[in-house]
Amino acid sequence: PMAQPAAAKAPAPVPAAPGLATMALLPRSQWLGLLHLDSIRERNKPIAPPTKPDAAPFFLPTTKGLAGDAVFDLDAGDDDDDDDEEDGEKEKASRILTNKGVHGGDVESTLLRLIRLGAAQLAEAEEQQLADAKKGIRPGDTTTKKKAAQKKGIQKRLYGAFETSHAIDSATDFYKQVTTHLRGKGPSGLDAEIRAIGPWDAATMTDDEAVELEDTLDFFAREIPSGRNFELLNALLAHFLRVHGSAIRERESLRMRAETVRAAARRQWQNVDVLLQEVRCALGFFGGQHGQ
Predict the structure, then answer these.
(1) With 0-12 CB in 10 A as exposed, 13-18 as middle and 19+ as buried, what is 239?
(2) Distance CA 249, CA 244 (A)
(3) Engineering a disulfide at 118: which of 123, 174, 184, 223 sits with its beta carbon 3.0 to 4.6 angstroms away?
(4) HSE-up of 228 (CA within 13 Å, CB side)?
């Protein structure tokens, strides 16, 4: 297998504040290539299909005769046809085993398995918070506050910032295994992971395939507001909607979840756009003053 770049093996950067947009720091081609995957494949297509040479070498099947000399076996062609039919049956059976839903097997992809594992951990944490709330226990650790109180000045602020960052990473990153898995994939690998989820055809979508799309949309709705892997998640979301958009339109439950993801992505982008607008205004102001 191809060696992963050092950036893909490194852990994802932790946001310095809750919801702060934080880049994945992956190679630009790893996520940008996913947005232009069709054009890249079209560009890499061969200019002309391979042509069969005019005088291709061939071999006639032979058998050993009674006198020890070679005799042509004219019935060997029929065996070859039988072999071709057997290969065709094996290929057909292989496709049946790898497809899902009405077409055959129901093998769960690695991405879907990790998404559901993270969702289970999230549900367990929410149940624990609800139980703590009934007991009157407030969320948060008082140990951090006590340690920060022992510091002074800038040390106190820095300590509190780093502890908050660590708490954000450890307490809310339920989909860490999912993002770690995705960070190690190239554009083609990410495309294969996205297409392995949901139906092959929106017209024949089953309930189980719709649940797969619901789980994936819930992952995006949870992970995008966190700010982690900002550019990677937005590229994945764009490709996911391009591949499964027609299937999402078929179910009301999927449309509702897609609307939740849309609202989360819009809020996150508005936060980034406001900061960029402030920078643009500052650069325009100082640039104008410098010109005078």
Answers:
(1) buried
(2) 9
(3) 174
(4) 25
